[in-house]
Amino acid sequence: MKTLSDRTQNIAASLTVAIDTMAKQMIADGKDVVSLGAGEPDFGTPTPIQDAAIDAIRAGKTRYTAPVGILDVRKAVAKKLEEENGLHYNASQIIMTSGAKHAVFNALAALINPGDEVIIPAPYWVTYPELVKWLGGTPVFVEAGIEKNFKIDAEDLRKACTPRTKAILLNNPCNPTGAVYSKRELEALAKEIVAQDIYCISDEVYEYFVYDTEFTSAAVFPGMAERTIVINGFSKSHCMTGWRIGYDAAPAPIAKIIGKIQGQATHHPSNVAQYAALGALNMDKSNVHAMQAAFRKRRAYMLERTSFLSTKPRAPEGAFYLFAPVSDYYGKKTPDGKVIAGSIDFCSALLESKGLAIVPGAAFGDDTCVRFSYAASDENLAKACDRFEAFVKELS
Q1: Is residue 95 within 8 Å of 341, Cβ to Cβ?
Q2: Is pLDDT above 90 for 13?
Q3: Which secondary structure element, helix H or strand E, spans residue 278, and what is its range?
Q4: d(Cα 206, Cα 237) in Å, to the nearest integer?
Q5: Percent of the chain at pLDDT exceeding 90
Q6: What share of the chain is helix, strand, coil (3-state, %, to 5)?
Q7: Between the chain's N and C termini, which has fewer beta carbons within 10 Å?
Q8: DSSP string, 150-176
Q9: Average pLDDT score over the chain
Q10: Residue pair 103/246 in contact by the 8 Å Cβ criterion
Q11: How many C-beta atoms lie closer than 10 Å to residue 86's C-beta?
């Protein structure tokens, strides 16, 4: 038979999804597993959002709508961006998507030609480089390790740019590190982005979960509105992971292209999810604030429980992940003689021996660390930390 798509076969599967799937299967098989692998809030979808979806179903709002999404929902997104972020968009510049991951795909598909380079600060979310490669582009990684607080600066960006550079893909706050760019840091990056005449894809899906600084959108600075595609969604902020609803906010010419892509590829996201998102946009932020307070408490707990590590983790400034350095333990052996050569070995042995699922840093472009998601109950966090500490202290 003829060969399948090389472009598709050459991209890697998501390791975070694979680990979460493996952990769930082990639990289904009756094994005692604690999973801190998935970035999924452990709170339920708020009642006003559920009610908005149910009302839409009962009102028969289940027919095809515009490929870019329902107008009232897009108007509400534009209003949110103006009131909360100081960004000015018409509803025609908002495209509703099947989650923020879909929004990232749309943005890259609108920009990339074969051979274009996309700068990605590392550590990075696992999906970014694979989508760039899938679309024929070349990911260019700029290292931002723990010694740099997991952030790049304007000079790093300048050095990484070439005549083939098309865009930078910025995740702020960052998954997996929890790093948050301050307004001053973003302003310096924005000046360089404008100077290099490149685009910026700004993934801001964790914007409400910031602890030690204020969140600023990359699109707010001079010269950035016309070159920035803002990515956001409702999965994290409103506990709607399974609803699959997000959006692109883009300059008008790019929004038009994204609308064309979506019209041919997926059409609009679920009407029910869109009306649920409208419910989220219309409700107050009490649920969000309660989650942020819970995550702040859990962050403190995780930092205290991992303080025994030879190299202490940096406090995440945002999101709900702890990116903990474990490379000091590479070369050591487990009690059954397995040598820990890197983060994948570390996490595999941890899951096999202690029933704790976390994600190896290699999945995010930094093999020195592992990622914990503390979007889990206090009970599960305590179990996880007990198992993690026991595992590390048994290495010799």
Answers
A1: no
A2: no
A3: helix 271-282
A4: 7
A5: 92
A6: 45, 15, 40
A7: N
A8: T---HHHHHHH--TTEEEEEEESS-TT
A9: 96
A10: yes
A11: 11
Distance between CA 126 and CA 165 in Å, rounded? 20
> CB of 328 within 8 A of CB of 353?
no
Residue 222 is predicted with a pLDDT of 98
The answer to whether the beta carbons of residues 132 and 365 sit under 8 Å apart is: no
Domains of the chain, each with CATH number or no CATH? 6-44+286-394 (3.90.1150.10), 61-282 (3.40.640.10)
d(CA 114, CA 132): 10
Using the CB atoms, write b or e for 302-336: b if 16+ within 10 Å: bbebbeebeeebbebbbbbbbbbbbbebbeeebee
Indicate the pTM of the whole model.
Answer: 0.96
Residue type, 48: P
Residues in the chain: 396
pLDDT in the model for residue 62 = 96
The token pair at 11 is 């991209």
Which tokens sit at 236?
């994290």
Query: Can you list the positions of beta strands (E) in 79-128?
Result: 94-97, 117-122
pLDDT at residue 12 in the model: 84
Mean pLDDT of 72-86: 98
Closest CA to 239 of 209, 259, 214: 209
3-state secondary structure of 136: coil
What is the per-residue pLDDT across 308-331, written as a single tens digit (0 to 9) for each? 999 999 999 999 999 999 999 999
Residue 88's CB is within 10 A of a number of other CB atoms, namely 12
Judging by DSSP bridges, how do beta strands 199-203 and 321-325 pair with one another?
unpaired
Q: How far, in Å, CA of 312 to CA of 319, rounded?
A: 19
- Please give the biggest Cα pair distance in the chain: 64
Show the DSSP H helices in 324-377 as ranges. 343-354
d(CA 362, CA 370): 8
Neighbours of 28 (CB within 10 A): 9
